[in-house]
Design a protein that fits this description.
The protein is an alpha+beta fold. The longest helix is centred in the first third of the chain and has 17 residues, at about 65-80. It has helices at about 15-25, 65-80, 100-110, 120-130, 150-165, 215-220, 295-310, 355-370; strands spanning about 5-10, 30-35, 50-55, 85-90, 90-95, 120, 140-145, 145-150, 170, 175-180, 190-195, 200-210, 225-235, 250-255, 260-265, 270-275, 315-325, 335, 340-345. The two termini are about 35 Å apart.
Length: about 375
């Protein structure tokens, strides 16, 4: 080894996934360095926006449910050592026409995994939760354990746990390159990494890359696979605030003719929050993206609010942008690099990953320290796109 500072593991990116990985690694006794190009936390990537949905009814694929159950356990464990509530249970609603994959997939995941749920007509949903005014032909899966996480505070809590276990986290330090050192690249025990930043050089036995929208800059194999997309979020003042409190308004995924939307009750920002998946289908360079919301962004979100949540369609309270990093199949990449098995990668969370951050951190610690994990992550292999 050279004169560079040396660690057991370096984590590139200290957002949702990287902060959790740093916490789990440090908790297991590893000497950890976390490197973040922006602040901790920050609003330049994907792990911000005050609220992020967590739900057990998972229409994307039933295989996610076991990971979700573990994620819930780990969020509760993290929250127990923190001074703010991180996970807020409101219930979740997945609503769509009855033959739509959103409704069918959500219902199937509940049935396959014996998850408590109710199937409601749009009229029944609106009667129970008056903030909803959905089309007559829509059906909804209501699952009482759904809710939201406070992403910025989740990151802070994970970083504080990492600090408490001896990790060193460096913000405002941009990684310029990394390379393997020492071994043959085939699980050789002498394999390691050297990481160059704009402030210094560091060495480690293992590397975790959780760089979000910048993942393809760090991993050549993710070029064209983990693709950043610009998103917009809106908060609107309810004219009937009582209908949109966390006690009276479940988080939702909604498929309508205008697209697929997601939303939240009022929390921390004085307004009902809504976003549209694949907002304008804008593939972006994360360093060049227009981060300022505009009137078109606002109009798209207001149109849905006025039509399906009319009691929430008051004056705009806040607008924001963020990013999805999409894979071709919209499933994650969580794996060790085949040519560099000392390097673990978590990327391509495709707009539905933050809720899994707690368990992804555990998985990354498993892959880094043990070379494998008991969690079923086969569907997230990096080579499935070859």
């Amino acid at each position: 080894m050279s004169d560079a500072d040396s660690y057991d593991a370096i984590v590139i990116g200290v957002g949702g996934m990287g902060s959790a990985a740093a916490a789990h690694l440090a908790e297991r006794g590893a000497d950890v360095l976390g490197l973040e190009r922006y602040d901790v936390p920050h609003s330049m990537g994907s792990s911000h926006g005050v609220t992020r949905i967590i739900r057990l009814a998972y229409y994307e694929h039933p295989s996610y449910v076991p990971l979700l159950r573990r994620a819930y356990e780990l969020w509760r464990d993290l929250e127990a050592d923190y001074d703010r509530q991180l996970l807020h249970v409101t219930g979740s609603v997945d609503a769509a026409p009855p033959d739509d994959p959103l409704f069918e997939g959500s219902k199937r995941s509940c049935e396959d995994h014996d998850i408590p749920h109710e199937v409601l007509s749009s009229a029944e949903l609106g009667e129970r939760f008056p903030g909803y005014d959905l089309p007559e032909d829509h059906m909804a899966v209501y699952q009482p354990d759904g809710g939201f996480l406070w992403p910025e505070q989740c990151i802070v809590a994970h970083v504080q746990r990492a600090h408490a276990n001896g990790a060193e986290i460096r913000a405002r330090e941009r990684v310029q390159s990394w390379e393997s050192t020492g071994g043959t690249g085939a699980d050789d025990p002498d394999d390691g990494v050297v990481v160059e930043t704009d402030r210094g050089t560091y060495e480690a036995s293992k590397l975790v890359i959780a760089a979000g929208a910048w993942a393809a800059e760090q991993v050549d194999a993710l070029e064209g696979i983990a693709v950043p997309e610009r998103q917009a979020l809106g908060w609107f003042q309810p004219t009937a605030p009582e209908h949109f409190s966390p006690e009276n308004f479940p988080v939702f995924n909604l498929q309508v003719s205008e697209g697929r939307y997601y939303g939240f009750p009022t929390f921390h920002v004085p307004g009902f929050k809504i976003g549209r998946y694949h907002h304008l289908d804008e593939t972006v360079d994360p360093d060049e993206m227009d981060r300022e919301p505009n009137r078109e962004d606002e109009a798209i979100l207001r149109e849905c609010t006025e039509r399906y949540f009319p009691a929430a369609a008051g004056p705009t309270q806040r607008l924001a942008t963020c990013m999805f990093t999409n894979t071709p199949d919209e499933h994650f990449v969580i794996d060790r690099l085949p040519d560099h098995p000392q390097v673990s990668v978590a990327a391509g969370f495709s707009g539905h990953g933050f809720k899994f951050a707690s368990v992804v951190g555990e998985i990354l610690a498993d892959l880094t320290l043990a070379g494998g994990t008991d969690h079923d992550v086969g569907m997230f292999s990096i080579d499935r796109f070859d």
